[in-house]
Amino acid sequence: MNNNVILVTGGAGFIGANFVIAWLQAGLGTVVNLDKLTYAGNLDNLRSLKDHAQHVFVQGDIADRALVDALLAEHQPSAIVHFAAESHVDRSIHGPADFIQTNVVGTFQLLEATRAYWARLSAADRDAFRYLHVSTDEVYGSLDVDDPAFSETTAYAPNSPYSASKAASDHLVRAYHHTYGLPVLTTNCSNNYGAYQFPEKLIPLVIHNALAGKPLPIYGDGGNVRDWLYVNDHCSAIRRVLAAGRVGETYNIGGCNEKTNLQVVHTLCDILDTLQPAAHSYRDLITFVPDRPGHDRRYAIDASKIQQELGWQPAEDFESGMRKTVAWYLANQDWTDNITSGAYRQWLETNYAQRNKEPA
Length: 360
Ligand code: NAD
Ligand code: TDX
Hints:
Layout: E1 2-9, H1 14-25, E2 30-35, E3 55-59, H2 65-75, E4 77-82, H3 89-94, H4 97-119, H5 123-128, E5 130-136, H6 161-180, E6 184-189, E7 191-193, H7 202-211, E8 216-219, E9 225-230, H8 231-244, E10 250-253, E11 258-260, H9 261-275, E12 286-289, H10 304-310, H11 318-331, H12 333-341, H13 343-357
Parallel strand pairs: 1-2, 1-4, 2-3, 4-5, 5-6, 6-10, 7-9, 8-12
Antiparallel strand pairs: 9-11
Helix pairs in contact: 1-8, 2-4, 4-6, 7-9, 9-11, 11-12
The structure holds nicotinamide-adenine-dinucleotide and thymidine-5'-diphospho-beta-D-xylose (TDX).
EC number: 4.2.1.46
Family: Belongs to the NAD(P)-dependent epimerase/dehydratase family. dTDP-glucose dehydratase subfamily.
Protein name: dTDP-glucose 4,6-dehydratase
């Protein structure tokens, strides 16, 4: 086992890319980054790592057992951080099959490959190895206004095909620890926001539409509540759990920032009014649209376990995180434009196909 190498799955997506960048910037060692590059995976998220000697990018599927076996045998990682997933609730409503395939079957195949690799390690390496499964607060279902926040002992009650597929994957991870002794850790985090988030999600979608003068769609009455955490704080929490979390435990991660969707969109509009004034107020673009089917009313996270046991605290408050986020999307409009115009796909097809043809 090589203590200087980790395997990250889904490291070309939103949170995975932020995690890989922060890991390499901190000089924590080599990252083997396995990503299928679905519509949500974007090598442009990793452009700051171009030619980085400690970043090994591999395009491939976590459900491809032979590929994962080969990667583990070649790189001998000391940890796996598993982000890869289909992640968008609305897409899971329209087409759940990909969610079952990647989130359930893909996680199962990754676990099987990991179990075989782990079993061949020396006893000392087996103790030191970690498999960290990145999951979501949505597995706990929906809260009423007065309910206490989700804790690690809250019963699972997933309501969307997305959250049901993540819940299934969490259960598999738990079972692999209980049955086979695989040293797993699971994190359940609230809604993330920050740089490189695919513009189908509320915050980047609203920024993009606002700048284009398009309607800002609010589902239902806009009163649904989410807890928001700046993505870099999620990444610091994962690093902390990886370093000091107790094997077999789950850790809830959250920002203590419960906001209704309308509050979030108002905040975005007000920041945009200051940073990029237009003839109208951006709030004028708010449009109420039919609700998401089965839309969970409220999520809230009790993060006291990770705070007290591992001493983790978020660095960013909601206002400062949102300002940074809006500033990033304003400074990187080409990033969003490349996705929304399809130019990125074209770039990928030519450049990536070209790179694969080049001799190693
Ligand atoms: P994302 O959709 O932005 O990125 C997912 C990445 O996984 C993409 O790069 C995609 O190409 C890759 N991928 C998908 N299927 C794959 C497969 N079969 N094999 C290999 N790679 C594959 O997602 P995200 O928002 O960055 O979420 C990352 C993880 O964090 C997910 O597991 C998600 O459930 C979890 N999570 C997300 C949030 C959030 O607010 N975004 C909150 C809590 C937990
Ligand atoms: O156009 C929109 N209008 C709107 O009102 C969109 C895209 C969303 N919404 C609402 C739905 C949710 O209540 O905003 C809230 C946030 O929506 P999303 O950005 O789609 O996130 P959510 O459904 O809460 O799930 C996210 O957080 C938990 C991630 O996509 C998941 O991967 C993560 O597990």
